[in-house]
Amino acid sequence: MLTRTLYRLVDIREHEVRALVWSFLYFFLLLCSYYILRPVRDEMGILGGVKNLPWMFTGTFIAMLLVVPLFGWVSARFPRQRFLPYVYVFFIANILIFYLAFLSGWQQAYVARAFFIWISVFNLFVVSVFWSYMNDLYDQAQAKRLFAVIATGGTAGAITGPAVTASLVESMGVSHMLLISAVLLVFTLVCIQRLSVWYDAHATEQQQELVQRPMGGSWIAGVQLVLQSPYLLGIGLLIVLYSTLSTFLYLQQASIVQASFSDSAERTSVFAMIDLAVNVLTVLTQLFLTSRLVRRLGLPFSLALIPGLLVIGFIALAIAPVLSVLIIVQVLRRAGNYGIMRPSREMLYSVLGREEKYKAKNFIDTVVYRGGDAASAWVYDGFRAMGLSLGQIAMIAAPLAAVWALVSWKLGVRREAMEKT
Length: 421
What we know:
Elements: H1 2-9, H2 17-47, H3 53-77, H4 80-104, H5 108-137, H6 140-172, H7 174-202, H8 205-212, H9 221-228, H10 230-260, H11 264-297, H12 299-319, H13 323-347, H14 354-385, H15 390-420
């Protein structure tokens, strides 16, 4: 019954069904785990002091600079089947440490800031590794057919996570959300093992030999690969523009929510409900729109669509800089990113080699992303210090969104040309 339903909904081959189900479940568990914690992170950002958010973004960037060389060292020396579980076990242990810190009640503001920084690293790192793994498992043709469906699994998890937090946080308390998140993350290890078994059964002998070998190279190879490739530099620019505009909206959201609500659990619940609205819209987009957009209108259009619409969104904010408009723009931007642009963006890597898929991609998704976050947070802080209003900042952001759309379009064109060669 499940298989027949899949065949009706998805352009899938018989031998891919098991892998698709495990990939879907893997991403569901991963994002459910994260989205249980995301509203907690947003609340920790307020408890740590909204005025300190630029410092927390900077701390996140510094943490990335420390973690990425460690990841490069591990991925260079261990085969995929070993280093992927190591990454997740490391983060599970981190969650448990923070759980104990929350229970102790020690130095709440400092623990809040540390948690905000840690989860910003956790989110980008585990999701980046997930998509690297997917690009390793599936070829280019499979990526076009299956990535939108796999992304839907993540969105389903992203709907479930904030729903769990919104319904339980006021009765169980913030700290106990961490335990639920850790348990879900443990089950991703089962998915990795089952996907490895599937790959071994269907890959050629040469492919099996390749993934069983460590990638080799130095820990800094990801940086070198990016600097040597105009294509990867273009992806890096796309990420910087995306993170800059996302940070502007996030900082505006934090200030407005802090002014509107005084209770910590209530604010956490509000953040969870915003996440829930985003993710319901995302899953509808992924199920009924994303694959059709890519197949019929092409990857360049799919990549440029959301930044193009965000130009309109920032102009609307400039005209009416009020909470309701900000929330609408934020919800539509995030849903569009997760539902359309993120799966399309991951396809940019499917034409590259294994080192680019893991090391270069991880560097872009973590250090470059959080570097953009940190820089744009200070720029935003400078704008506010100069007395610029929300509407004026939105007017500055609109042309940046237009540049983001142009860069996205050009990358999509380049990727399609590389696929044909």
